[in-house]
Design goal:
Helices cover 43% and strands 18% of the residues. It is of the alpha/beta class. The strands form three sheets. Strands 8, 9, 10, 11, 12 and 13 form a six-stranded mixed sheet that branches. It has a five-stranded parallel sheet with strand order 5-4-3-6-7, with helices on both faces. A two-stranded antiparallel sheet has the order 1-2. α7 packs antiparallel against α8 and α8 runs parallel beside α14. The radius of gyration is 24 Å and the shape is globular.
Length: 305
């Protein structure tokens, strides 16, 4: 037997032995998950997960996991809208004040909490189950994408998170391909209330999705939202494309539409004002939400089918 043949034979024997060896995958073993409030030690693959923000629910869905519990603001219809389907889960109260007793009763093996809303109860959550804290409420598009991989790592399957992200980015690229080259118009999302508007800047989730699409947010800022904006502020911003997110009921949009100043805004003058749903454009965050935003912008602004 030649030396080359012997080496090939030895390699085959070792490979066969390893293939049959009962060893644990690296992601099943102990691992340290870095998050906004430090690190959390995990092992195995958590199966009973409690999600305390909407973006975490979407991330888990992208990873093929149904949460055992969700802080759903006591509105199951929102979760149906968030995911586009009905899932079986237990409500653990509101995102602002999740019910610790309900969470504990579920005996979870992982809790995913938000930095802004839940830092004050982090220790209490950690006493119930291993807890990771991420930035959802103030998270921009890149932050939300990174969180998907972190959550996948916490679940013991980081590769699946990376795959989900790659598939999402391919879908976004396919949508963005429909935007005409050389688009220079400035786009703005405004959330209308009965007495004012909140203007979403480049730092907001929706504004950062616009930027990822190659569009120009009308307000460049490190602050995600300008609250309490009146008609004068909207006129000074002068967006070329205006998306107005509304809830059912009257808003300032109804009051302003007959105002000559309103009609001087470029978006109004050029019939580039579109009403959109507040949940999808303002309350929700996630990969699926980003795809929905991109798809609706294409349909409304560019009449893309």
């Amino acid at each position: 037997m030649s030396s080359l043949t012997r080496r090939a034979f030895s390699f085959a024997i070792v490979t066969a032995a390893l293939a049959g060896a009962p060893f644990a995958k690296a992601e099943d073993g102990p691992r340290t998950i870095e998050h906004r409030l430090g690190t959390t030690e995990l092992s195995g693959k958590p199966t009973k997960v409690v999600a305390l923000e909407f973006s975490f629910v979407q991330a888990l869905d992208a990873l093929g996991v149904v949460p055992a519990g969700i802080a759903d603001d006591n509105q199951t219809k929102r979760i149906e809208q968030l995911l586009g389907k009905t899932i079986d889960y237990a409500s653990v109260g509101t995102r602002l004040e999740p019910n610790l007793e309900l969470i504990s009763n579920l005996a979870p093996d992982l809790i995913i909490a938000d930095e802004i809303r839940h830092s004050a109860i982090y220790q209490q959550l950690g006493s119930i189950a291993p807890t990771i804290v991420l930035n959802s409420w103030e998270g921009d598009y890149e932050t939300i994408k990174t969180s998907v991989v972190t959550i996948a790592d916490a679940l013991g399957d980081k590769a699946r998170g990376e795959q989900a992200l790659a598939e999402h980015e391919a879908r976004i690229a396919a949508l963005v391909a429909h935007i005409p080259k050389g688009e220079k118009r400035r786009i703005l999302l405004a959330v209308a209330t009965p007495d004012s508007m909140s203007l979403h800047t480049s730092a907001s989730f929706t504004g950062s999705v616009f930027k990822a699409m190659g569009l120009t947010p009308a307000i460049e800022s490190s602050d995600a939202v300008e609250s309490g904006a009146g008609l004068e502020r909207l006129v000074s911003v002068a967006p070329d494309i205006l998306l107005v997110a509304t809830d059912p009921g009257g808003t300032v949009l109804d009051q302003w539409q007959d105002n000559a100043v309103w009609n001087a805004i470029p978006a109004v003058r050029n019939k580039m004002v579109f009403e959109v749903g507040r949940n999808q454009f303002s309350r929700f965050r996630g990969l699926k939400t980003a795809e929905m935003i991109a798809g609706e912008v294409l349909a409304k602004v560019y009449d893309a089918k």
